[in-house]
Amino acid sequence: MSETSRVASDRQSVLSVKDLKVVFSGFKALKGVDLEVGENEIVTIIGPNGAGKSTLLDAIVGKSPVASGHVYYHGKDITNQSPYEVARMGIGRKFQNPNVYNDLTVFDNILLALKGAHGVFASIKSKLTAGKRDKIISVLDRVGLLEKGYSKVSSLSHGQKQWVEIGMVIAQDPTLVLLDEPTAGMTPDETHLTGEIIKTISQNHSVVVIEHDMEFVKQIAQRIVVLHQGEKLTEGSVNEVQSNPKVIEVYLGREQIDAA
Ligand SMILES: Nc1ncnc2c1ncn2[C@@H]1O[C@H](COP(=O)(O)OP(=O)(O)OP(=O)(O)O)[C@@H](O)[C@H]1O
């Protein structure tokens, strides 16, 4: 057993994906993938375009239908539950493009995302309790936006908008946070800060991150899962994955050529 697998098995299981298959009109996008995520763990998924990374997250949250296999969350079978049910149970998902209210302040965006919020107008006009205010401030602190609370989201940089959305996800108190390419389009400084935000978030949540930027992967990664053509090629620590000849052949070699 590798060092990283041992660390994973020592943690309380939050998510357990078993032999998951997803088929789109006869095309096998996932051909039997396993994935384990432990409490407060950061698992990073890498792999070439079309490997099935987003499909795996979609299948976990009930957005893509699972043909066979299972998704267990805290030991409960949640396979093919509706996205609404999955979110309600405590799995938060952030997509690639920020889905924020540009004309509202950062603070109000987080307020709208809080559990129990009912519609934009009702949420903003309802009395702000001290509990809600403290909660929003704590979220803003964790995503590095404490000083931007009263700025309109439209005035923020692309990276800051991504952090608002990460804040909106964690405001719902998920146990597990799924992030699909959170650093896409970010500057190097924003990318680095995002890594620090994710490490902070992992103190209270388990996190699964799909990512292409290997510098960023090295910054955050505890365990890396490599997907290729709908299958898990390997998993392990940064060093284990980077020195794996199969990974170099199908992915890292390609990334290095693309970066040159
Ligand atoms: N709704 C769909 N209908 C048909 N085919 C799909 C659908 N969603 C994904 N696919 C196909 O499944 C395969 C896996 O796609 P997926 O988006 O999961 O890959 P990915 O690893 O996330 O790639 P990228 O890094 O480019 O985002 C691709 O060949 C894609 O074209």
TrEMBL record:
<keyword id="KW-0067">ATP-binding</keyword>
<dbReference type="Pfam" id="PF12399">
    <property type="entry name" value="BCA_ABC_TP_C"/>
</dbReference>
<keyword id="KW-0813">Transport</keyword>
<dbReference type="InterPro" id="IPR003439">
    <property type="entry name" value="ABC_transporter-like_ATP-bd"/>
</dbReference>
<dbReference type="InterPro" id="IPR027417">
    <property type="entry name" value="P-loop_NTPase"/>
</dbReference>
<feature type="domain" description="ABC transporter">
    <location>
        <begin position="15"/>
        <end position="254"/>
    </location>
</feature>
<dbReference type="InterPro" id="IPR032823">
    <property type="entry name" value="BCA_ABC_TP_C"/>
</dbReference>
<dbReference type="InterPro" id="IPR003593">
    <property type="entry name" value="AAA+_ATPase"/>
</dbReference>
<dbReference type="InterPro" id="IPR051120">
    <property type="entry name" value="ABC_AA/LPS_Transport"/>
</dbReference>
<protein>
    <submittedName>
        <fullName>Urea ABC transporter ATP-binding protein UrtD</fullName>
    </submittedName>
</protein>
<dbReference type="InterPro" id="IPR017781">
    <property type="entry name" value="ABC_transptr_urea_ATP-bd_UrtD"/>
</dbReference>
<keyword id="KW-0547">Nucleotide-binding</keyword>
<dbReference type="GO" id="GO:0005524">
    <property type="term" value="F:ATP binding"/>
</dbReference>
<dbReference type="Pfam" id="PF00005">
    <property type="entry name" value="ABC_tran"/>
</dbReference>
